Amino acid sequence: MFSLPRKPRNWYPGATYHITQRGNRKSEIFYDNHDYLKYLGLLEETQQKLPFTLHTYCLMPNHIHLQLETKETPLSETMRIVNSRYAIYFNKKYELIGHVFQDRYWAQLILDDWYMLEASKYIHLNPVEANMVENPEIYPWSSCAAYFAPQKTNPLISTERILSFFSSPSNKNYIRYLNSEERNSELLAPLLAKNPFIKNSAYNNNKLQENHNSI
Questions:
Q1: Interval 164-190 mean pLDDT
Q2: CATH superfamily of domain region 16-214
């Protein structure tokens, strides 16, 4: 018996992805606050050495969401460094052996602004959908607070691209977007100006649902 080589992921400089990584057998990968902080610290250390832009993130107890834009380093290399270092830390701390993460990470290439926007909403609303918090901005292990309160700087996050889709005041309109089921043309005037012939988003919604079902 032999295993076939893994199919290489579609990557090019500037490629942006919605990434999900879950714990082995859907087990928890964060047991306490120090674990969340460790993972975020590893992301920041890797970002400094191999630059990338992180637009949103959410660390849930048994899985991770990242909305990441690459630069000169392939996504596979970035994820290999972060996940392997976290797995070593986790197993050593809790005296475990074996895999911390299940399979390869899931990564959907983001090819249009609508999916970019909808993925950010999906990621930030994860704790709300899981009934962990009532309001997404109070969940401590996501990037949502950086969008709600620009004065609260988060060195990991760049909010500019997503907020550029909204009319001024962009951060307040992003909040309204998260709390609404409708696509308000007044809120999204800059995005609609760039994309006057936006089509049905069934493809994007299907991809988000596919990701949700796999968690």
A1: 80
A2: Transposase IS200-like (3.30.70.1290)
